[in-house]
Amino acid sequence: MQASSAATAGARPLDGIRVLELGQLMAGPLAGTYLGYFGAEVIKVEDPEAGDPVRGWRVLDEDGTSLWWRSLGRNKRLITLDLRTEEGRAEVRRLAATCDVLIENFRPGRMEAWGLGPDDLRPGHPGLVYVRVSGFGQEGPYAQRRGFASVCEAVGGLRHVTGHPGEVPVRSNLSLGDTFAAHQAVIGTLLAITRRERDPERRGQVVDVAIAEAVLNVMEAAVSEYDRCGAIREPSGTTITGVVPTDAYPCSDGRRVVIGANGDSIFQRLMETAGRGDMAHDERYATNKDRMRHQAAIDEAIAAWTSTLPCAEVVRRLEAAGVPAGPINSAKDLREDPHFLARGQMETVEVNGAPVVLPALGPKLLDTPGRTDFAGGELGQDNEALLGGD
After folding, report:
1. pLDDT digits (tens, 9 = 90+) for 22-70
2. Please, what are the domains in the chain?
3. On the chain, which terminus has fewer CB atoms closer than 10 Å, C or N?
């Protein structure tokens, strides 16, 4: 059964853009989700038998479909084609000729082997923006490696700086590499569309996104610090290298509060609020460079104060003092957070007669906002409308 929503209709920035999405799992499909959220008509192609594996991953709804799929498949028209057959590939060629954008995230060379690569499709449709997402890009020594997010987060450097010093590097319980790559794919798509609109010949182009490179791009100055100074950034546990104080401090109710007070005046306000005026105005802690030399003593003093109060009270007092602070929220906390609710970040759609909440997608556009029209639906539900009943 197709999910439905009572979302209010309105103009969106990508209205009129048509996207053909090929591939499965995360990075490429998430890019399609963003485009569809902001108005593009996204046609997702799935395998006739298995569909996208995300349909069965993690927490499942009562009908056996994952809640992850309900989010990832939102706003998409869903068809099934067997790309291993010439009949299926012929349908892709037909649909691609009607689209502005094609997104694919197969291993490099697979689309060419099927006769569906850029050189196959773009001669007859030069305006097509062809977006390719892979682990390591379409060329280079690693191009043929299988590149799931976990591997690319390691190769791109993120895993090296995650965790506690001297321990096995840890992974966030999220597919961050895929998300980073999806964002790059969306940016690349919009840049290519913008360039096409300004081109007298309205030419599209190929957008080559590598998950490992998307990870590399969030590594800040780590490479430059090594190249210039020989410094290798290491994991720093619950803090961040070179910024004091910022940590996750214990509270009396068992929760932890994250405090970021690395500005000099903010540090003073923090310590005064914590009852440590002596430290607030001590020259030994006057600048961040000074505080780095006394990080242990500073963190100990802050923790001694936060541990006497519940997390909400710590946040309340620090907010009143103008010190950035916030609780570490679980999914339950996020779902009930009054700020996110007030900003419309929890969208309710109907699936099989019951409401399901999906987080909104940013950025928040005031004149032409995105929206969830319906959650990810059933396998092949749009075959008849788009393929003539296949």
Report:
1. 999 999 999 999 999 999 999 999 999 999 999 999 999 999 999 999 9
2. 18-218+342-387 (3.40.50.10540), 256-327 (3.30.1540.10)
3. N
